[in-house]
């Protein structure tokens, strides 16, 4: 499986939804809490161009936020990207 990286905060409901969706698929994630590690916020912005969380990557492929992840899953594209 590929590396899934999520930039998150502890209080973000969309972050929890993304972790739940990926967890339900058996996906192991690398979570980067940008509140606990403030320097990682700039890394997230540089990688994604966005300031909101979650920001999700599969290897180096940028997925987007939770809505983008959920849409990718509904369209059947998530699992092939993870294979």
From TrEMBL:
Residue runs in coiled coils: none
Keyword Electron transport: yes
Domain Glutaredoxin: 4-63
SUPFAM superfamilies assigned: Thioredoxin-like
UniProt entry tagged with the keyword Cytoplasm: yes
Entries under InterPro entries matching the protein: GLR_AS, Glutaredoxin, Glutaredoxin_subgr, Grx-like_ET, GRX_bact, Thioredoxin-like_sf
Keywords tagged on the record: Cytoplasm, Disulfide bond, Electron transport, Redox-active center, Transport
Signal peptide: none
Family from the record: Belongs to the glutaredoxin family.
Function: Has a glutathione-disulfide oxidoreductase activity in the presence of NADPH and glutathione reductase. Reduces low molecular weight disulfides and proteins.
Name the UniProt record assigns to this protein: Glutaredoxin
Organism: Pseudomonas gregormendelii
């Amino acid at each position: 499986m590929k590396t899934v990286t999520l930039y998150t905060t502890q209080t973000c409901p969309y972050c929890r939804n993304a972790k739940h969706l990926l967890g339900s698929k058996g996906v192991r994630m690398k979570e980067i809490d940008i509140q606990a590690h403030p320097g990682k916020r700039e890394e997230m912005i540089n990688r994604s161009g966005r300031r909101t969380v979650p920001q999700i990557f599969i290897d180096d492929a940028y997925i987007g936020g939770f809505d983008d992840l959920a849409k990718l899953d509904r369209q059947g594209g998530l699992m092939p990207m993870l294979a």
